[in-house]
Design a protein that fits this description.
The chain is mainly α and about 180 residues long. It has a domain at about 50-175. It contains six helices and no strands. The longest helix has about 70 residues, at about 1-70. The protein is rod-shaped.
């Protein structure tokens, strides 16, 4: 009988010890988890403080790219009197590709949606200029190419794709704040 009481006392103390251990473990785990969360938040704040200016600059450059490759702006900027439509086409395509290459590193700092818009605008603009140039007679002037491209843009149903792209990029910028 004495041996049975001894074993029961040991079991009571062991169970009580196990309960105390798991209770303490639960509270310590919660405390450490909260401390880790605070450290992660601080780390994210510090990271954001360092990368936010770079990301804003990247978005700024993307907006500038979209404005520069907009045919309304580009054709006026690149047009020289006496150019043929083919010469203007070649100059515009080279300018678009150079602008794109100049800004290609910005994809690191902007989200995928924004960069996909940049690529699509680049490809669509090259296609628009090339299709307009190919539809004109071989001896057409650069002015005729410009008129053809601008007329095509004016006849598009819905919103101008360049303005729409800029609006989407602006929305993406708002997610940074």
């Amino acid at each position: 009988m004495n041996g049975t009481l001894y074993i029961l006392d040991i079991l009571k103390y062991a169970i009580a010890g196990i309960i105390v251990f798991f209770t303490a473990w639960y509270f310590i785990k919660e405390h450490l988890s909260q401390k880790l969360n605070v450290q992660l938040i601080d780390l994210k704040k510090e990271s954001m403080r360092q990368t936010l200016p770079l990301r804003l600059q990247a978005y700024e450059r993307v907006v500038l790219f979209l404005e520069r490759v907009n045919p309304v702006n580009m054709l006026v900027r690149l047009h020289h009197p006496g150019m043929t439509a083919r010469q203007l086409q070649q100059l515009v395509v080279e300018e678009i590709r150079a602008e794109y290459q100049h800004n290609i590193s910005q994809q690191i700092y902007v989200n995928d949606n924004t960069w996909n818009i940049v690529k699509k605008v680049k490809e669509d603009t090259i296609a628009l200029i090339s299709n307009a140039a190919n539809a004109l007679p071989e001896d057409s002037s650069s002015l005729e190419l410009s008129k053809s491209v601008l007329l095509h843009l004016a006849n598009l149903e819905g919103e101008n794709p360049y303005d729409l792209s800029l609006a989407i990029v602006r929305e993406d910028i708002q997610t940074l704040f």
